[in-house]
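Researcher: I'm comparing several assemblies side by side, and this is the next one on my list. It has 714 residues spread over two chains. Same procedure as the others: predict the full complex and return the structure.
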Amino acid sequence: MNDDEPKSSPGPAKAEMSETTLGAPLSPSVAAPLDDAIIHTPPEVAVAEGDVRQVAEDGGYVAGTSLWRDAWRRLLKNKLAVFGLIVVLLVTIASILGPYVLKLTTGMTPDYIPGDAALIRSFPPFTAPDGSFSWTHPMGTDRQGRDLLARVLQGGQISLMVGFIATLMSLIIGVGYGAVAGYLGGRIDNLMMRLVDVLYAIPYIILVIVLLAMFKGQTPRAQLILLFIALGSVSWLTMARIVRGQVLSLKNQEFVLAARAIGVSTPRIIFRHIVPNTLGPVIVYATLTIPSVMLAEAFLSFLGFGVQPPLASWGSLVTDGIQNIGIFPWQLVCPGVTMALTLFSLNFLGDGLRDALDPRTRKF
Amino acid sequence: MTTNNDNVLEVSDLRTYFHTEDGTVKAVDGVTFNLKRGETLGIVGESGSGKSVTNLSIVRLVPSPPGEIVSGEVKFGGQDLLKLSEAEVRRIRGRRIAMVFQDPMSSLNPFMKISRQLMETTQLHLGHTRAEAREHAVRMLDMVGIPEARERLDSYPHEFSGGMRQRVMIAMALSCEPELLIADEPTTALDVTIQAQILELIKTLKRVTGTSVILISHDLGVVAGMTDHLIVMYAGKVFEQAPTRALFATPGNPYTKGLLRSVPDPTDEQGKLYQIPGQPPDVAHLPPGCPFAPRCERAEEICHREFPPFVQLTAEHFSLCHFAEEVYEEAKGGNLMARPGDLTVRGRRS
């Protein structure tokens, strides 16, 4: 057996090391026989064949094959999910870098309104003012003659930001709230979850509209932050319920008892031991929350409560586009298609993640 | 029983009740025992006899609600654990009293590397830095006989076999040099060859570190070779309490006798294995008399009517039975022969 050698030979070296680096916790009287035992006696007794054979036969072990790595491999096998992932990444990168690239290449910015009155009108994609082919406006221009591609990319920035930040808020509030309620249980759980029920009962769109209406008349940027807060503060409810359900089944597991038996404090048990075990469903739900929040934002912008000009989001661009749908269809089609593509890519990704992370639906 | 300073743990009249819809379940009902420094105490009994709850009560880990420690005293190092604050008990758990649980498959957190779980204990209690804790963890894994401990430290629990996980649990339990180790059926979930190794490991480490051990088991074979004293529990009560040798040689309680007779005897080929008739009682609705009476061979009318006394047979031998002395004399007369060492238990010759 190849494990005989490492445990018997490095005796002296180990003894030195343990005495220099680790003498501290042990009282001298105990430390001496303990070291003794490590090196000389117990391994023969302790390591017996059946225990180690598995390792010996494999001839080694893969260090740190985590559940995440397994999940990642399973995700890569799912074509739709990979497609979703790629599209989401592309759209994200394009939204972040795109406006700068455009400024350098075509010189267009999202809020540039041409000075020439003849140019303040909507041109179709790839069309120069004289009707010939041109790369200047790949998506055309809007009513004010602003470059639509630049606006779609900048709208993407805001739409994605709304989605991510609201989801982040739902992660922080929802996971914490649900985990605490589930772990503490009893009356506290009852109280906390009834609050969630009450908030659930209020139609969230109305809540958001009221919030936004209350603080109307701010700068566009302040209103954007308000939108983040408003969407984030309602999107955590389902997350809290999901996490609570997970925690309820996890808290009676033996490893929680074992953690308590070594004296770990309650907050630490909740957030270090239990919450990581809920991450699978949480990630899946978070990925599915992003598109739903983005959709909600689009809806609010559509109603005129969302992003205010000169800022644009996909929702507000679609709203603008829909007014002239008969004459200038590209004003609706370009932002609309971009948004739809992103949303269903996110949904594919979410579904793929669910399959990858949830062992019950795992296909072998 | 006398109180003296050699005792690591003194439990007196511990009562833990569970308030269920079915009524109050007296899971532990008046358990009293002492554990001397460096000794091993075995607690045996059928499922539901209150073994585990006794130990969870000692470290105050009984799920509450529905559980409640109704009364009693758990003196550990001069302090009554039941009177300490939650934070004070937390400082004792893991540091001075450590536990090893039955199922190593589920008692390690599947999402945490072995290293983090091992390091957590010492970082928490001994104030180790990450590097110190890591070195200590390597040393502990080495001590419990995990080969190439340093390389395996960053594995996840699912990469370990059951036996190795139990070794990790033991390493975790012993990493702060506790004064008391509570092993709750540490080998039940393992196969027989691994069982022997784990028991041998606990025995060796106990000798080396001088830790006192409470070993819970339903397997008489496991406790026979491991323990100095034994407690037999039934329906939340201590039925018999004696030095291991005495208990195997001269049991003073019909229930213990029944248990001993239920152990298969390899020398008796044709013998039919003895079985205690009936089922363990519903602890929520105990009859007024002896809880074992309905299943007891020698139960008489008084057993069904009156709760039996806790009879002292010798200095350290106690039995909860109306007929304790008679049973004891019978056993002493050589009707039942058993040695704890080889566990050759023969049925009563008639």
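Model: For your comparison table: The mean pLDDT of chain B is 82.
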